[in-house]
Amino acid sequence: MPASRRSRGGRPRDASLDARILSETCALLAARGFRGLRIDEVARRAGVPKSTIYRRWPSLAELAVDAVDAALGQRECPPGDDPLADLSAIIARAHACFSASPLAASLPQLAAELTAHPRAAAAYRERVIAPLRNGAIDAVGRALEAGEWPGPDPATSVDMMLGAVAYRYTYLGHAADLDEAFAIAEAVARRPLPQPESESGDEGGGGAAGAGA
């Protein structure tokens, strides 16, 4: 749960103020990356003193994680009757969050920088990465049980799909489009996958990430 939503005693937090701080943090992350993120700049843009931010987030890393979590929006995909259709929906949602989002360029740097911040890194894995990864592993597991998955075991399959896209972006400077993401997934699955319903208007996660810098 984001730090701003935790009960720490005293009067309730102003949710609109929290949202403004997170929105400005996302705008700066998208424009400058985590290394260019500064509390004083967030405070200036949000129109609050730095102490207001520090009361809510004990570190810049935790503020960044909460901002990304809020900006990317819904990542859980409820399971349906067809595990392969579920997997396709998750692939499309992951692409919208991590490749098509205005935050896409800043996320690999943020993940790398968080290695120096164990608590924030754990929160990033749990809240940002795990919902989609775990959902995909569950979908592949159900497909495997139904005899519809000739590829590797569920966790290995999902990590191969995600890893190939992340490798191409981080080390080759190539952002895979949705068709390429599906081609990678089908290569891992060793079978075709159903095409998901369009997520038009939903690419890029939540609106906070799209704020101008």
Task: Describe what this molecule looks like in 3D.
- With 213 residues, this protein is mainly alpha-helical.
- The protein folds into 2 domains: 16-70, Homeodomain-like (Arc Repressor Mutant, subunit A, Orthogonal Bundle); 75-189, Orthogonal Bundle (Tetracycline Repressor, domain 2).
- 60% of the residues lie in helices and 0% in strands.
- It contains 9 helices and no strands.
- The chain has helices at residues 15-32, 39-46, 50-56, 60-72, 83-98, 107-113, 118-145, 154-172, 178-189.
- The radius of gyration is 18 Å and the shape is elongated.
- Residues 3-8 and 200-213 have low confidence and may be disordered.
List the helices and strands and how they pair.
Blueprint lengths: L14 H18 L6 H8 L3 H7 L3 H13 L10 H16 L8 H7 L4 H28 L8 H19 L5 H12 L24
Task: Write a short abstract of this structure.
The protein contains 9 helices and no strands.
Q: Tally the structural domains.
A: 2
Secondary structure category: mainly alpha
- H/E series: HHHHHHHHH
Task: Identify the CATH class of the largest domain.
Answer: Mainly Alpha
Shape: elongated
Secondary structure tally: strands: 0
Strand content: under 5%
* Residue-averaged pLDDT: 88
Q: Major beta sheet, specifics?
A: none
CATH architecture label of the largest domain? Orthogonal Bundle
The helical percent reads 55-70%
Termini gap: 26 Å
User: Count of DSSP helices?
Assistant: 9
- From the structure provided, what is the oligomeric state, counting identical versus distinct chains? single chain
Radius of gyration: 18 Å
Low-pLDDT stretches: 3-8, 200-213
> What is the CATH homologous superfamily assignment of the largest domain?
Tetracycline Repressor, domain 2
According to CATH, the fold-level topology of the largest domain is: Tetracycline Repressor, domain 2
